[in-house]
């Protein structure tokens, strides 16, 4: 989140928000108190899932995203002046990249002749991926304008993984019971050499 704040100009951040019964009213009130026209609201659920809401104050619209792919301790970016933000859509996800425009300089810190031809883009971060969930008519709620049909919540994914693991355990238990019933129905014949070395 701090990487994103460092990229945004004129950004005002607040700590935690105590949400009352109406989340929408609380957040709109906070936006008005800060004198802002738009808001990014981050929700962290189950200590694993990060959701981000982008909203235009009071009237809307707003968008809810599932955010993933952000490294926990991304390297610090170096100071720069010229940068390019890239928003690309791949596989129904919005990918964000931040690039610095690097121009070759000489010892006196002047741009080299023909340096514009040698300009390069260097990714400085932050980098993240947004999976759009819903678009609302108003800020933080109201009627839904769009709902992503391909979105699967992280809770559903974890539940499926648990079921698969439970299936493995059930297979082991069934295999054990089958083995025991097989051993009982097909007992071993007595070994004729069992008493050979006994005195």
Automatic annotation (TrEMBL):
It is found in: Nucleus, Nucleolus. InterPro entries: Brix, BRX1. Residues 170-199 are annotated as: Disordered. Keywords: Nucleus, Ribosome biogenesis. Residues 1-141 form the Brix domain. Residues 170-181 have a biased composition (Basic residues). GO terms for biological process: ribosomal large subunit assembly; rRNA processing. Transmembrane segments: none annotated. One of its GO terms (cellular component) is nucleolus. Its main location: nucleus. One of its GO terms (molecular function) is rRNA binding. Residues 189-199 have a biased composition (Acidic residues). PANTHER family: RIBOSOME BIOGENESIS PROTEIN BRIX, RIBOSOME BIOGENESIS PROTEIN BRX1 HOMOLOG. Belongs to the BRX1 family. This is Brix domain-containing protein.
């Amino acid at each position: 989140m701090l990487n994103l704040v460092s990229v945004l100009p004129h950004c005002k951040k607040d700590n935690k928000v105590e949400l009352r019964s109406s989340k929408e009213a609380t957040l709109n009130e906070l936006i008005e108190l800060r004198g802002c026209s738009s808001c990014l609201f981050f929700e962290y659920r189950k200590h694993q899932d990060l959701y981000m809401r982008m909203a235009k104050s009071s009237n809307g619209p707003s968008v809810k995203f599932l955010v993933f792919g952000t490294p926990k301790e991304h390297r610090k970016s170096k100071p720069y002046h010229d940068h390019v933000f890239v928003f690309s859509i791949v596989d129904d996800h919005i990918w964000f990249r931040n690039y610095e425009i690097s121009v070759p300089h000489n010892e006196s810190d002047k741009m080299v002749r023909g340096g514009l031809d040698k300009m390069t883009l260097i990714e400085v971060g932050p980098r993240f991926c947004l999976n759009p969930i819903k678009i609302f008519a108003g800020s933080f709620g109201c009627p839904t304008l769009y709902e992503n049909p391909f979105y699967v919540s992280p809770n559903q994914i974890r539940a499926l993984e648990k079921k698969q693991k439970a299936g493995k355990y059930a297979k082991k238990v069934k295999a054990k019971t089958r083995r025991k019933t097989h051993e009982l129905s097909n007992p071993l014949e007595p070994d004729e050499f069992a008493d050979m070395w006994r005195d």
